[in-house]
Amino acid sequence: MTTNSKTIYPAGDTDFIPEMRELGRVDAGMLPIGGTFTMDIQEAIEVAVAIKPKAVIPMHHLKANPREFKKKIRGKIRC
Q: Residue 69: enclosing H or E segment and its boundaries?
C-alpha cells in the first residue's frame, strides 16, 4: 500500500514467505510477532532484515511482547 509516497507493508496473518524478498522499497513494515498462526518474534526479525523497511511495527502480539521484539531487533533495523 502506498500513501503520500510512502510504502506500508501490512503483512497480516502470515509466516515468512519467499515473495517477501521481492517487495522492493518498504518505508514501514507491519509484522505479526504472536507465533500463533503467524510468525513469531524471531521469524519477524528475519523478515525485517530481509525486506529492510525504514521502520517496523510489531502487530498481532497477543502471546508475544513487543518490547522483547524491540530489544531483539535493536541494531538490526529501526523500530
A: helix 66-73
